[in-house]
Amino acid sequence: MTTFDPSAHQHMQIADPPQRVSGMRVPEAWALLGKPADLPGDADDAWRQTGFVLAEDLRLLTANLDLQVRLAATGYTLSARNMRMASIASLWSRAVVTASDAAHLTRLGSYQSALGLVRQLAELLAAQRGLAADPEAWETFKAWAHRGYATHADSRADEIGLGHYFAGEEIAQDPVLRVIYRGASDLARPNFGPSALFTANEATRQKYPLVFGDRAFHLGWAELILGWLLHLGVAQLHFALHAAALFPAPPELREAVVAHARAVEEYVEHHAHSTTSGDTPRCRLEEYVDNDGRRRHLLTDFRRRTGDAAKRILL
Is the model's pTM score more than 0.85? Predict the structure, then answer.
């Protein structure tokens, strides 16, 4: 059995997928997961402090995900109920769960695990954009839909097929998405610098104080990850609003989405640099370009607790 190669068929128009969208179940609302029972001490403290110090982040993120599922549900409108909508909604569904799980892990102090999900979330958003904007990507999806769900005689299996797709250009062309994707990827991988930050936060050239399995609260990591989730959540809503033919939201829902996006942008902007009313600037990651042109990551306002001195970390 041969494998479909989209590059060999890039100029061939493929018929619409043979499947029909026969059902679409969407939650009526979305809420972040509650506190697990019997948390160990560090994770329990991380949950408590995140809920106290970053309560507004969690409130906005919950509102964001709730708006996302309400907006996604409009895809089942008769005029929008087709496989183009379903191809994007399938990725969007994964994105909602991924964002929610990343927030949950962040509350538990499992920052390094949450970062892997942030990377996945960025890829899922980029893939939705690519399917909507790139005709070649849509042709690739249609080819997969025609060849999937067959019977593979040699393995005696239902052959769904991988349907490999990565929207790298969508990530590269968006400066915000690019920074989040590169940052989350490099922080989640087994690179030495991030590994030291997660396991020996106070290390210097003279000492390496290893804390194995550290899940203690860290304000900098929590601010960075939840801020990224808010940015990606707003980007997801913006994308869906502009895909009105696939997700025809009624006016009142569109107005709620626009108001939410404005509230998130004002909140993040206020805390990006503000030091008024006792606030301290949020931890953030920026691109830093060396004199030789090498792109690096610069963590600013990186601190474990609110009263700690802020650090700048170059990775």
Answer: yes
